[in-house]
Fold these 3 entries.
Entry 1:
Amino acid sequence: MLIRDFIGDYKSFLDNFGYHETRVARYIKQRALDYGYEVYNGRRKKYIQGDKIIFEFRDKLIALVELGKCLEDGSNVIVSHMDSPRLDVIQGNPIVEEEDGVFVKTVPYGGIINQLYLDRPLVLVGRVYNDDGELIQINTKEQGYFFNVTSLLPHLRGRQEVKDLTYDKLRVRIGNSKEDNIFEIIKKEYGITKENLEFAELSFVPYGNVMDMGFDKDLMMGYAHDDLCCTFANLEAMISSEPSNITKIALFVSYEETGSNQLTGAITQFIDDIYLKLAEGDMLLARECITATKLISADVCSGYDSTYGSHFESSAKAICGKGVTIVPILGNKRGNDSTIQMKHYIKTLCEEYNIDYQVEFTKPSEGGGGTVSSFFATRGMECIDVAIPVLAMHSPMECISKKDIFWAYRLYKVFLESN
């Protein structure tokens, strides 16, 4: 695949589906169906080499499996997450009517800098049940409805309140008239009422298409590169990979941004159940496959920014445009510590297939975040993080290099194909 075509497809994916993990999961499923995958039907059957199966769980976890020759030989797995930081609508009664308009109370999902969500267009996405028990999909971008969290003008002494902005001030302005008027519009457009919002699953996310950045147009800026750049590279590597004797799995999970401790996060037992189903209920065989598995945790890492250079480890920093990034140890050893064999294996693949790579190590004094890799390492899998560097991570306008995401796709593909 040419890098030009790959980047064009990625931009289209992010612009049209990158607003919520449920939309991403539906996209992944449709792409897999187009490439000959079949949805697991719940009935135990004997799988043979080359079978392509889709496993789904609760709308927010999806796995694509291509069966290899012998499960005892293990599997090659790439896992990425489909969720991104955003503003979630609180449940209960989130609506507040003031004399200057109608607002919705929100709570941050994932780690954000509050001030970065001020004064920028937002769209409302998610799902809600109406009075008839029908699940309604919401994406106000499609109907042209946009929203904002407004800030205070800089001339007032109270401007310090914006600098010290607390979560409770992240109220999204949804209208300039009365609450009743606003809900007349909402009911006409979506068929839902204020009472339907009590347990709705709704989020405000930044609006805007992916844009090229800089005169050389090497970088792309937009919302949700974390972690949809890795998700897209993972998906494309899986569906374009050549047949292999080793079972291949592309796994897409949710709730990584809040610790993965949910039923569709990386900790879920459902992932182990996939192996059990492939092994036709033979628990020992399933465990043999798991412990013989090699896994890439495909998540973003912090791209080096010379403006804040003192916060990066000078001997191992990920520079956007310099290649896919191998992260041997995460977050001051809070995450997975890869084996020397796995590090050598990934490095060898890069060298064999002429894939540009670099190594990133978080500066010890800076702490650092984590990924899902440790949850799979504790299952007995041999894991390593292979990342795409991101500038302005967790902001509404993240930046990545076109070259890096393409190098990641190439490495993910040869990893899946490797025996």
Entry 2:
Amino acid sequence: QPAATMTEPCDLSAVDLRALIGARKLSPVELVESCLKRIDAVNGTVNAFVALDEQGALATAREQEKRLASSTEQPKLFGLPVGIKDLVNVQGIRTTYGSLLFKDHVPDADDGQITRLRQAGAIILGKTNTPEFGSGANTTNRVYGATTNPFDPARTPGGSSGGSAAALACSMVPLAQGSDTGGSLRAPATWSGVVGFRPRPGAVANERRLLPLTYFSVQGPMGRSVADTALLYSAQAGSAHPGDPMGFPFSTADLAYPKPANLSKLRVAFSEDLGSAPVDDGIKRVFRARTGKFRAAFAHARDDHPDIAGVRDAFWVLRCVYYMAYHKEKVEKHRDLLSPNIVTNTEAGYAMSLADVAAAEVAWRQWYDRFQAFMEDVDLLILPGNAYPPYRLDTGAPTTINGKPMENYMDASLIRSALTLTGNPVIAVPCGLDETGAPFGFQIAGKRHGEAELLSAALAIETILNADGETARPIPDLEKLT
């Protein structure tokens, strides 16, 4: 981040902030106050934070300040404010899931992942906006309204972790939590100029999942850099929860502070559209130009992709199973209070048969096998972060891409949702602006169970990108948002 923008503590990286707090050069109270000041300045325009716990955060910060005076050892997130997507229960903080059905809901207990963050020393500052139940390519709901893109408030920051992404872009918090089904960590990170990391399923335990064994929704970290994102992930991941059948324990010791990989030893495949996924021609042009700047850094680079035949239809069926499980009863009883996305996605499942589901499961398995075979002789697969630039809030998602009609908004997410079904870790890394002046970025997929290696590679790629003004992480003009 350019030094000229670092006028407040909240503008510093999470890694630097943690070091300053540990060295007693910055107080957790000062940092929380800096974050609250930034929120007060720009949140009225951006609408990223929807519920704040100012007094609770300051009280925690004061307690931590006292601990600093008497202790030399602090946990890894000690003193760092974190934004929590409004799909996660936080004790005592209004948690609506973006739905009128829960507009007055205040949980009486933390979800397990919040307990882990608190144990790691994080300060829970408040809740960030989400579409209803996380369903949507933008971030708007009937409780709080729309979150806007910090680079152009007429446009969306993407969804469904758009509140977290926009908050990070404006330095309202150094770290934020999100979740990802068809790209909900990756899409808003790309459109907001920040980093979003989709880990392998089960890495961040989530005891509130209704479907016990599925790759669909995962919890994950967001930050303004790869290093910050890795730091948060190292606190989120690795702890099993008895309520999550997919949650599993593993060591996160090598995740918190990754070292840059030696890119000259890595084999990489580049694909602008996975062969047939809808991707805007302008995004393809930017992708080709930007990747051309760092292709030579790798031991071997080729243009290639696995075969995604059948993946789009399989994802749609499996998604409808997900919606039927979570929302069928709500649609039947409270249809008028729900967003059209919830209703249409759920009702699409009514027309499907058990044979359709079985065929989708088989197609999923076949895609999984093809993808893992493809990744056997490459270390990374690099793709565009999104299929098209962020759209205007008043027009909604594009109904066509390159003149070809999209059947629904999920069609245009295939560049992301195909990766969901692989189970492989994927990180979104920013790379300057696109032809429309909006943030552009890459998705980088790593090997199955290869989070540490992927984070190290992404860190090295980010270093190359940030050294070039055209490809460095973009920063919004905050004066235009106040």
Entry 3:
Amino acid sequence: MSKPHGFIGIFLTLLAICFGVVTGLIVKAIGTEIALVSLLLYRFLFSMPVLIGAAVAARRSQFLQINAKWTLAIRIVFGCAAMACWFTSIRLLPLGQATALLQTSVIFVTILSPFLLGERIGIFRWSAVVTGMLGIILLTNPFGSGFSGNVIFGLMGALAGAGLSIFLRQLGKIDHPFSVAVWYNGVGTIALALLVVGMVVAGGDAKLFALSPDVLHLLLLLGVMAAGLQLSITSAFRFAEAVVISAMRYLQIPMAAFVAFLLFDEVMAPIELIGAAVVIASCVFIAWREFVRARDRQTITSTDTA
């Protein structure tokens, strides 16, 4: 891979990190001013124009073409579950802690890979998994006075995100990621709109659709940031090695914690910071081992065909 392409991949990854941090800040700023279901609805809805524009530019008249329809359906379920859990954890936990918990999905991917993908996990990656699980224990701080049962939402989001990553691997081999993004967000918009309308008709709060101008502006920005995050991280894999992208994405944890400290006076406990550092180290090691295995497979293939 040429250096210019590598720099483009790094730039897109940094862009995705910034989009991710801003997304978390917006969700934290909105707080509980609107219901979670409404927050998710507007996030999906306002991301659609950007995603459709990108898909049309990339695929023209085939921007909606999808081959693996059932895999896409499962991806939509896991994606919505992961997002709902992540947004809930951001509302209830310090942003740095919620972000760190979300990033533990790499550990769960490694645990699930032998069962769902038939991959063989060696002693090095299993050691990293065990270390990462210890880091998760420290990160959740279960024995401290500041422990909150709300960490379960962060862990559930990471587990759903792991399932999402596995199905995205399969989809990425068959369908264009921009088309997948359009279908995912489009179906999410329709499903959530029907849910909100049903709640209102059934006697729910009509304010589920009501928005103040300030909240509306934040939701519009949330949709744009979410679309930018999806497009930039997807495009980054075209220009940089997966191990580089995976390692760099953990910069989002300290960035989110620092910005949340400046804006919301949120402070993570020392043991939680240690746990976050352990999680980052174990996940980066897992990503590095994945790169080594991929390189070894490529070497064997090249030798066999020589």
